[in-house]
Amino acid sequence: MRNPTLSRRRLLVATGSVLAASALMCGGVTVWGSQMPTIEYVQASCGKEANMQKVLVAYASKCGSTGEVAQAIGATLCANGATVDVRRIEDVSDVTGYDAFVIGSAIRMGSWLPQAKHFVESNVTRLRSAPTAFFTVHMLNTDDSEESKAARSAYVAPVHALLEPQSEAFFAGKLDMSKMSFLDRMISRMMKAKDEDRRDWRAIAAWAGQLLPETP
Length: 216
Ligand SMILES: Cc1cc2nc3c(=O)[nH]c(=O)nc-3n(C[C@H](O)[C@H](O)[C@H](O)COP(=O)(O)O)c2cc1C
Description:
There is one protein chain. The protein has helices spanning 8-24, 29-34, 65-79, 114-122, 124-128, 146-160, 182-190, 201-209, and strands spanning 44-46, 54-60, 83-88, 100-108, 111-112, 132-138, 167-172, 174-175, 196-197. The protein is of the alpha/beta class and 216 residues long. The chain has one domain: Flavodoxin domain (Rossmann fold, 3-Layer(aba) Sandwich), CATH 3.40.50. Strands 1, 2, 3, 4, 5, 6 and 7 form a seven-stranded mixed β-sheet that branches. Strand 6 (132-138), helix 6 and strand 7 (167-172) form a beta-alpha-beta unit. The radius of gyration is 18 Å and the shape is globular. The N and C termini lie far apart (41 Å). Mean pLDDT is 87; it is low at 1-6 and 21-33. Bound molecules: flavin mononucleotide. Flavin mononucleotide binds next to helix 1, helix 3, strand 4, strand 6 and strand 8.
């Protein structure tokens, strides 16, 4: 997905075509769309020392690459003295006990994954009263053009409407067809996307390194 001419419109056209084709083929989309390869989502904890600032790094991912970004963020926070839990958003049942939050999502079809937005919505009172940062992992609109900046803002506009984070980052992600559902793979192929890993671990560590908020 390196081609800058790949627009959200084209993505939507591709998706529409896949859905239409699937509907014509007797509704197979439900079965295809739900057939996901097994993915190991990162769950990690580090820096379990008493009296440290406790940070939750919660992420939403479909194919796993956002979890690895979350893990790298967590490792940097720990190296800087925090106690950190890195958790898939679906596995966070309780946000009490954390002093600060780093929340991230992969982008699908121009938006954060629904569970990430739901997490912010459900915990907005707590998140507004604590240092909170957002990160977004995506493949399109990664350059510094005004068009790309506007597209990135649109990705996160619904969560910004709930909460303005104290820090925010956008990271180029990874495409791995072998980890996609049949439907996502079809969409990616129609977009002429290829497997690639564009995650910049140095940029991720640099952002995480300046993140550690003051203890409230
Ligand atoms: C079906 C599909 C739709 C995508 N839609 C977008 C998009 O609208 N904008 C974008 O920048 N990246 C898009 N991406 C790229 C993903 O955000 C990127 O590959 C990310 O690293 C995936 O994270 P994950 O491995 O945690 O699921 C899309 C990828 C797929 C497979």
